[in-house]
Amino acid sequence: METTARYGDAGMRKFLIIIFLLTIPWQTRWIFGDTMINGAPSEYGRLFVSLGDLTAAFIAAVWLFGLRKQFRRRRFLENRLRFIFLLPALSVISSLWAPEPLLAIQIGARLFLAYAVIFALKDETLRFRRECYAVFAVALVPSAIIGVWQILVQYVDASTALGIAGQFPLRLGTAVVELNGVRVLRAYGTFSHPNIFGGAMALGIVSALFCSSFLKRSWRRRSLCAVATILTVGLFASVSRAALLTLVVATVAWIFAVRHRADEYRRGRTVVRGIVAGLLVGVALFGNLWTARADMSGRLEKKSVDDRVSEWSLARDIVAEKPFNWIVGVGAGNFVFKSAEIKPGMPVYDYQPTHNVFALLFAEFGLVGLALAFLTIGPIRPIRRIGLIYASLFILMFFDHWLWTQPFGLYATAIFVGLL
What pLDDT, on the 0 to 100 scale, is given for residue 64? Predict the structure, then answer.
């Protein structure tokens, strides 16, 4: 049964949510501070306000304004909304012991906005929430097109307005695939790394697939089919293994969930055809890059595995440094800077967050933070057809860190949790 929005100006909130979904793929941001490691600025120490932060702040303001009746009736503490402040508060408090206090405060503010987005979405009607999946997928189409163009022309144009850094395959630090000794640029789209771009494409495809099961009008399903095709080609241009694994597992999870639901299967298979079409195009254009990436004997692939093993070992060392770290961690957003304290003297680009969100949260927030994170999300709904969304988020969180360390990742997680 659909429920009506309970608080605030529902029309204004819906408008802001749509704007939020359309703008978060763009990495426009105002940088007002840098944090240094060995005299060089770290990407993970940037103090900034992103376009997503601004739109999320408007959503939070409208949603909080609508909660005034709950505050007046003193019923605010009687439901799970009371947990919205706990993890952001822990983040801000962790600035007391964090190596870089301002980063912890910034994470706390962004966490509060993310939780506001979650609960604002949950206050919307079921029909609107389902439509949001389609909007999220469509919003990623420009990024997919840009990404395919980048890999074809082998450079990324810099754009201050769009928050895109220039990239060239011969520049050290650029994400590439080595093909017969030649450095081939991977697609970045509108994001700061191909893995984020590929993960975004996977989440967009999953959104289109989930939404299509509920669409009764064929022209809408055909539109999402075209969207899924474009996003799948974009995913292949990213050459991200975690993104491809996410897509495969999510598609299998969807087929398993709806195999006995004839109507949902019939509607959703239109998008599946789009995924298959995109897969065929992607293999035809970029299959040789995927073959090279699958060869784990290559220099870059060995380095990738070694780096991840080293990050896991470092996360263990950080947590084990003292019992206090087990309880409340080293401070929100401070994993990289604690790493620099434990292993000083390395170049700034060698200090990376561990590529696992769960290990990263444990290191930065401890057991208390992990408990609060799951507490605020609430219980997992035992509905089989949303298993593809849980599976997608879990895989991306297990193999990378951007769902926590990047505003797009944090807000994308908030969107999916809020829409479920």
Answer: 80
